[in-house]
Amino acid sequence: MARINLLPWRAERRKLRQKDFLGMLALAVAAGVLASFLVVSWYSGRISNQNARNEYLKGQIAKVDSQIKEIEELDKKKSKLLARKEVIEQLQANRSQMVHLFDSLVRTIPDGVSLSAIKQDGDILTLTGRSQSNARVSTYMRNLEGSGWMTSPDLDVIEAKEGNPGLPYEFNLKVKLANPNAPKEGEEGAAVAAPATTAPPAAPAAGGAAS
């Protein structure tokens, strides 16, 4: 019976399989490296795009911050201008009031009373002076109350002092400033509506004028 030696064929087949395995392994490694490169490149692109967006947003935020600062500066300037406007309007409104006030001060001082100092703090006016007697000061307080431009006189102190025998008493009183021409609460709307509701007086008939 003939014998066939299969060892060389088996060795050749084993070498061929090893070669195929190594080729597949190399192909798998190459595929893995390529896939890793693609994944890394994709994520790197995403990161670069996000960084670009972040830089753009930072630039826009910086612009908005600068605009906000400009707006705040404009608001400060606006507040200062409005405050000046209110002061000017108040001065214009009180201009006539101060004229009437000083006129009232002159008219209300009775004989035997002399003012030495006037101090205003808001709507409170402090009057300092000398008088002949307590009765003169009482008369002066009644005159102030009836002037219409000053109200609620309050006598702080009155005492006899040397230095002026004709006016021996020195007094210090406070009054509250008032504007009698200012409309009271509830009357301003009525004052505005009155001209619209009040009809002009009818003209007299020609016949009545002739008679």
Mean pLDDT: 79
Order of neighbouring strands in the sheet with most strands: 1-2-4-3
Helical fraction: 55-70%
Radius of gyration: 51 Å
Question: Main beta sheet: strand number and arrangement?
Answer: 4 strands, antiparallel
Q: What would the keywords be for this entry?
A:
four-stranded antiparallel β-sheet; 4 helices; 62% helix; 211 residues
Question: How would you sum up this structure, described in words?
Answer:
The chain is an alpha+beta fold and 211 residues long. The chain has a domain at 109-181: Gyrase A, domain 2, CATH 3.30.1360.100. It is built from four helices and four strands; from the N terminus they run H-E-E-H-E-E-H-H. It has helices at residues 7-108, 134-146, 188-197, 206-210; strands at 113-121, 124-131, 150-160, 169-177. The protein has a four-stranded antiparallel β-sheet, with helices on one face. A hairpin with an 8-residue loop joins strand 3 (150-160) and strand 4. The chain is rod-shaped. The N and C termini lie far apart (175 Å).
